[in-house]
Amino acid sequence: MATDLSDYAIIKEGEAEILMHAKNQVFYNKTQVNNRDVSIAVLRTFITKRKEEHEARLSKKTKTAVKESDKDASNCVVEEVPIEPANHEEKTNGDCEMAAEVSQDEPCSVSEEPEKVTEGKWCGELKPPRVLEALSASGLRALRYAREVEGIGQVVALDNDKDAVEACRRNIKFNGSVACSKVESHLADARVHMLTHPKEFDVVDLDPYGSPSVFLDSAVQSVVDGGLLMCTATDMAVLCGGNGEVCYSKYGSYPLRGKYCHEMALRILLACIESHANRYKRYIVPVLSVQMDFYVRVFVRIYSSASAMKNTPLKLSYVYQCIGCDSFHLQPIGRTVTKNTSVRYLPGFGPVVPQECSDCGKKFNMGGPIWSAPIHDQEWVTSILSDVKSMKERYPAYDRISAVLTTISEELPDVPLFLSLHNLCATLKCTSPSAVIFRSAVINAGYRISGTHVNPLGLKSDAPMDVIWDIMRCWVKNHPVKPQPADQSGTVILAKEPVLHANFARAVASLSKAQTKKVARFLPNPERHWGPKLRAGRTITSKHISLLGPEAVNEHLNHEDGEEHDAKRQKVEDQPTPN
């Protein structure tokens, strides 16, 4: 059936083009170009790393086979040598295990169910990765994957809305033969599809409108060992502490409303994914975690190992946040005790804080558990950033994603959450030192400090809170403040003499490499009303001006008025004239 293009607007992003109807039938958000660009960059790096890991395993198994054959030859034993995996822990990368009776040069045996071989027998040749886009809407993301990512295999786009599936199929045809050969669209419930296709997809992409929590259990089961799960959460009001009880019901963690709430949202999502993976003797390894615009996006690899899964309590912590000052402390859930070669897993020691804050005397709020292990793999971040810079013309949002990745590459990977220098000064009612001076004081005290991609004013440091407050006490001695009421947190903090005498001399490492080169790290939005959009199917009215802008709303309303006028005129013309 031919499509009348006059009813559609053609939207081009990267190398893909889609047809969007004037009515709000299928969801599309221009803002998510940042999300899609980062996903493409990570996907390219994943394909490269996957190939390198496959070649390394292949080389290792070949060497093992050669050693075994040499050993048999020296013993004059003539028999066919089966190729066994050198280490059963290596069965975590998803391609497949070596068939016991198949030699290196022989072709792989064909399974009776070819669609379910992604994780099965270990073949000499690496198959292109299969990608599942669980919530495809217009299909733009799937089309960009198919057209822009070299070496990608089949891309399966799912949606449980008929209009969305029709739009996706229309867009697949509109994008030509490459899209038609690689992308397929199905009308299906993503949860059911993922549950009925366990360990079949090398990459699963979840980008729902709102919370991904209902999809996580099936998603962690559908990824092959060593595969990649890409997950977005846009319910930031819930994750950042606006509705703590809702967050707990969806993600199993209680959020706190600190300046670090957006990073805490990332860590809550990672802890939730890990929790779902653990139920199936699997665990996650985060490679990149990003907070941008109005959402968080995490990229994790999923592996299967009952023994490695025992380390999960070591990666999770509760957070104690003082209600009077910015002091926060982490309480690890678990610990290990090593004796000779045996390792025992025990509950963590606690509590890490007294009933009242040792700095200001106020009570603590407790949140979590959150993921307290690193949220990025710095090797991956470096690879992704170099790939983005080498192909900048292929990323529509190059400026924004390169700025974010540059900032992430300079973060301290092993320091959870961060402090806000302005909040510290607000507690003490003092003027703020420049970030360079404060960073220098921390470095001169023998600790590390860095920025964070989440907040331009945020500072990550491994310095304990008593050192941070000593530095601020020394700053206030040189920059006195007005007397404050005795019950104020700042007054209690300043009443104590500093144990550490801070050195505010400028340190060499007080500026990051990007700051030294004046590389832009935090860019403004490219246009007004850059943010979330209406859910598909909702009627656009004048109350949506704050989301869409007056031009878009007026254009839509005028279009609807024109259609209504044409429909009335057609109805009048169709009425029979009286004789």
Account of the protein in words:
There is one protein chain. The chain has about 575 residues and is an alpha/beta fold. It has three domains: about 270 residues, Vaccinia Virus protein VP39 (Rossmann fold); about 100 residues, N2,N2-dimethylguanosine tRNA methyltransferase, C-terminal domain (Phenylalanyl-tRNA Synthetase, Chain B, domain 1, 2-Layer Sandwich); about 30 residues, no CATH class. About 35% of the residues lie in helices and about 20% in strands. The protein is built from 18 helices and 19 strands. The strands form six sheets. A seven-stranded mixed sheet has the order 7-6-5-8-9-11-10, sandwiched between helices. It has a three-stranded antiparallel sheet with strand order 13-12-16. Strands 17-19-18 form a three-stranded antiparallel sheet. Strand 10 and strand 11 form a beta hairpin. Helix 10 runs antiparallel to helix 11. The chain is globular. About 10% of the residues have low confidence.
List keywords for this structure.
single chain, 579 residues, alpha/beta, Rossmann fold, seven-stranded mixed beta sheet, three-stranded antiparallel beta sheet, 18 helices, 18% strand
Strand order across the biggest sheet? 7-6-5-8-9-11-10
Spans of at least 5 consecutive residues whose pLDDT stays below 50 are: 76-122
- Main structural class: alpha/beta
Named CATH architecture of the largest domain: 3-Layer(aba) Sandwich
Number of strands: 19
| Major sheet | 7 strands, mixed
What top-tier CATH class of the largest domain fits best? Alpha Beta
Strand content: 15-25%
Separate helix tally:
18
What is the CATH topology assignment of the largest domain?
Rossmann fold
Number of domains: 3
> Nearest-angstrom radius of gyration?
28 Å
